[in-house]
Amino acid sequence: MSVNRLLLLLLFLPFAGLAQTTTISGKVTNAVSLTGLGKVSVFLSNSSFGTETSDDGTFRLAGVKPGQYTIVASSVGFQQYVEQVLVGNDAINLNIILKPKINQLRGVVISTEADFKKNLELFKKQFIGEGENAKKCEIVNPHVMNMIYHSRKLEMEAWSSDFLVIENKALGYRVKFLVDTFSSSGISDVTEWQGQIVFEELPGSEAQKKAWKLKRADTYYGSARHFYRSLYRGSLTQDGFLMYRLYREINPNRPNEVVIEQKIKQFVQLHQRDSALFWQEKGRMSRYYHENLIRQPLEPYQVFSNTDAPGIFALHFPDCLYVIYTKRREETDFRDLYRPLDMENFETSIITLREPYALFDMNGVVFRGVPLNEGTWSKSRIDDLLPFNYDPKDE
Q: In 3D, which of 380, 287, 379 has the Cα closest to residue 332?
């Protein structure tokens, strides 16, 4: 799809007709025997829609909202099936063929129990988070994780051999992950992961369910997903969002992160205190300079447009997008987040596009050209993760 076609429609169009739900059904077949496969996990990744196939291989997912989804079929001994589906109002029927798994590309990492526990704590910190919700998250089966820590590069990589199960007792979800890749850099402070996720409701009393409902709404409001939904719905102002354009340049006086870390480690080992302090000061320098916030609020049409695919939107803007959520104050001090002295301390995030444009759907999910988030949204980890189909209005 070309950029020109993506940006063809610049007017807001009503999508009321897409607000219904539909059904995804089909059959999972063994590629060798051509017979239906039972007990296969079929789910829409990052959602609460999931099921197992019946003995004849058939499945049905009902009540699916319009949007861009990834459907996954997974069974022991077979290659994982993954396909992108664009859901509208019409029912979808799929014939899924699973091929036997021939090669195991990655084996199991052997480590001492002490190393495993040390790596697991680092993984939990970077993957689950450190917020209030994280304190109520429990990994049920940690030993499905394979983790390697590269001390010289201050990097961790990890993947799972099966579903990693996390019970989030703050939000009331049992979250099951197939972690394909995970990486976390202590130098750049960037954490990235890829994989497939399905949510299940935790059982609880009426009082617990009420508390979960309130906590889910509190987690959702002001989030990136809330912002993207408000953007295409034209409700930014009433939902508490402001958008500005931020211009900035990379600070040429600040050395590369890798160099800084190497120098600090080198001079600490040599007990050369002054040199170590010098490089620590370099590390405290801002990554950016010549920052200029243009305090003229942006209109939605200046940053996004409809595409020729109903319910799919293109995000496009120059420099950086500075997003303020005026209904909550920020409690974290972000070193590199530019904030004018006369600006109130509201939650603030900076969006930087890594590609000319990004695509997001009606669920507020960016599924192509995922941008870099700094500030408030950069704190979000698994402890704050809600299903793509979650909407506080539904509860």
A: 379
| Residue 11 pLDDT level (bands cut at 50, 70, 90) | very low
Q: How far apart are CA 52 and CA 363, in angstroms?
A: 24
pLDDT in tens, 340-378: 999 999 999 999 999 999 999 999 999 899 899 999 998
- Which residue, among 274, 276, 366, 351, has the nearest Cα to 317 in the 3D structure? 351
Confidence check: pLDDT of 104 > 80: no
Provide the total of helices (H) and of strands (E) in the chain, helices listed first: 7, 22
Backbone angles phi, psi at 394, to 5 degrees: -70, -25
Q: What b-and-e string marks burial along 109-138, b requiring 16 or more CB atoms within 10 Å of the CB? A: beeeeeebeebbeebbebbbbebebbeebe
Angle between helices 273-284 and 257-269 (to 10 degrees): 160
Is residue 217 over pLDDT 90? Answer: yes
3 state DSSP class of 143 = helix
Ramachandran area for residue 333 (φ above 0: left; ψ -120 to 50: alpha; else beta): beta
Indicate the helix (H) or strand (E) that contains 262: helix 257-269
Q: How many residues make up the chain in this entry?
A: 395
Distance CA 191, CA 206 (A): 36
Task: Give residue 112's region: left, alpha or beta (phi > 0; psi -120 to 50).
Answer: beta
pLDDT, position 342: 92
What does residue 136 show for φ and ψ, rounded to 5 degrees? -110, 20
Nearest to 226 by CA among 329, 270, 13, 216: 216
Spans of all domains in the chain? 11-98, 113-219, 222-394
| Residue 188 pLDDT level (bands cut at 50, 70, 90) | low
Whole-angstrom Cα distance, residue 332 to residue 220?
A: 18
Q: Token pair for residue 45?
A: 């990744």
User: Edge-to-edge strands of the sheet including 312-315?
Assistant: 304-306, 312-315, 358-361, 366-368
Q: What is the pLDDT of residue 329?
A: 95
Q: CA Rg, the chain, in Å?
A: 23
Backbone dihedral angles phi then psi of residue 321, each to the nearest 5 degrees:
-100, 125
- CATH no. of 11-98: 2.60.40.10
Question: According to the model, what pLDDT value does residue 319 have?
Answer: 95
Q: Report which DSSP code applies to 18.
A: G
